[in-house]
Amino acid sequence: MKKLLKLGASALAITLAANAATAEGKLVIYNWFEYLPQELIDKFAAQENVEVTMDTFDSNEAMLASLKAGKMGTYDVAMPSDYMVDIMGDEGMLDTFDQEEMPNFSNIMDQWLNVSFDPGRNSSVPYQWGSTSFSVNRDAYKGDINTLAMIFNPPNEVKGKINVLDSQGEVLALGSMYLGIPQCSTDREELKALNNLMLEAKPHWASFGSDVAKDVLVSGDASVGMIWSGFGAKAREEGANIEYAFPKEGYVVWTDSIVLLKDAPNRANALKFMNFMLEPENAAALTNFAAYTAGVKGVEPFLSDTVANSPESNPPAEPIGELVMACPQEVQAVYDTIWTNLKK
Amino acid sequence: MAADLQPKASSSTSTYAGLGIPLILPAWAIIGFFLVLPVMMMLIYSFLTKEFRGGVIWEFSLAAYDQFFFDRGLFGDELPKIEWTYITIFWRSIWQAAAATLLCLVIGFPTAWFIATRTARNRSIWLFLVTIPYWVNLLIRTISMKFLIRDNGPMNELLMASGLISEPIHIINTNLAVQLGLFYSYLPFMVLPIYAAVERYNFALSEAAADLYASRTITLTQIILPTIKPGIIAGCILVFVPSLGAFLAPDLLGGAKNFMIGSLIEEQFKGAAGNWPFGAAASMILLSLVLLVLTLYARQQTREQG
Fold it and tell me: Which of A56, A185, A344 to mutate to test the interface with B (most CBs of B within 10 A)?
């Protein structure tokens, strides 16, 4: 019994010591699902002696809703997309930092430095960027695929075999590009045209789905699938005979950032983590995992060939993609009505 | 208090008479905390003003209910007409749930009957078999169903290999797929209550009916069905109510092309709409509908018994 007590006491001592060792600090991350490899979490935890926890979300809006419902002050950093950084800034959810606090700040690529959603990068650093367009099964359709008509006025071969992302912002942005009208248009005729376009296109669509976007292309349930570039690359690597389109009317470009959240419980560790992810080797490890593109200089030597050369990540010079815009309240109300009309 | 604990008489009712309120407190606390409080919150939220992109402003507003019942056009400035959008969505959910309930009843009743008429030992084996799939998470089961019924899935390949069909049967992303999914999800909720009722059924009644020259149909409709009706109704309610709010099967098997009540409400909280008061109002309307149906049922039951 005495022995047992002794054993228990020493075990307790070890646990306490271990806790003391890890209790140097914590970091709580709020990220997209499947968007940060465990090896990078472990590397950061070991390097900075920090205990890392991560929760995940499946849409920008779901993340915003959760933060608004009382989770501010829980997380240190989050990974929203461009327009959502804008919204979070407007909502006063972001903290700012000085460039001196982040030694690797100069690694950010110039094109991702002065961005519209965070001019001068005071609250965010780039995480990954990519595009939203669609992939087409080349066994099902052999013609020219570089037009948004593949989704909104599809050829007979693919009618009824189209999956569309269940994402209001991206679908309506692509629809606006197809019609040649600006995003968040306030013009009534243009908004009516957008509404009609959606209603006319819907009968040709088989399903809406974001997390299934890759699966339906691999299985052949869909011949055309709206998809994010890296997800499309993964579908192709899993054996689907598909090609990713860069439509002539335009496509969506997005860039996810790591933002520093207001009331972050571990602000110092948050900055260390953002700095860590700007290290070319780490940014490359993330890119190799997620198959999108880093916004950091000097990643090339660390990239795997398949990711570096994937057609999905190497858009042509023309046309260039457009960021999804955060619409003002009165336009967003019309967008909501259009989306409800589409799915009623 | 100590005096209350003294047994005053041999009857158990008087033994526990004074303890009634303290004993019921935990139940009240649970109902209050997990039922009344959340529902009250929803009720209050549904009458508040929507904040842009989620959240509420603490000002009284009927906008959420107005949006549900009145159509003011794409830009919200036309004269109000009756809004059919949400009624359509509710109706779709109701008939989908009703169809799934009917499917469960048609398959579940004979199944329950079969099980209840086995020997006691075999009964428990059959019951165990019915519940086995439910040890697996609902999401996994729904996705497996999707793999099974897709155009080039095993079901179609088997049928085509056997020469029964030449073209795959297209089920995925149709209403039939949703009903199959709901049926598969909730079948045991139909089988188990009916089984419990049939098991208690006194088969001497059937024999007596037969002795009195009742046909099999008459025995079924006049003797058996009235006796086990409570089990059938309980099964129907247990299948219908969760089917009404289901969104896994409609999303994964139906292709999420049309809103169901569940996905409509989810969109208000987690989607781009970010309209919490409207989501709360839609939940309240759904809750009222369900309560109305249950109250009508309860009243009819008491009338029959009284």
Answer: A344
- Domain ranges, residue B7: 2-62
CA distance B293 to chain A (A): 24
**Look-up: residue for tokens 């509710």?**
B90
In this complex, is the C-beta atom of A186 within 8 Å of any C-beta atom belonging to chain B? no
ipTM, 2 dp: 0.82
Contact B54 A343 (CB under 8 A): no
Mean pLDDT of B259-275: 88
B259 touches chain A (CB under 8 A): yes
Same domain for B140 and B9: no
pLDDT digits (tens, 9 = 90+) for B41-55: 999 999 999 998 888
CATH number at residue B111: 1.10.3720.10
In a domain, B131, yes or no: yes
A341 in contact with B, Cβ within 8 Å: yes
Q: What is the pLDDT of residues A167-217, one digit of tens each?
A: 899 999 999 999 999 999 999 999 999 999 999 999 999 999 888 899 999
- Whether B70 maps to a domain, the answer reads no
Mark yes or no for CB contact A205/B55 under 8 Å.
Answer: no
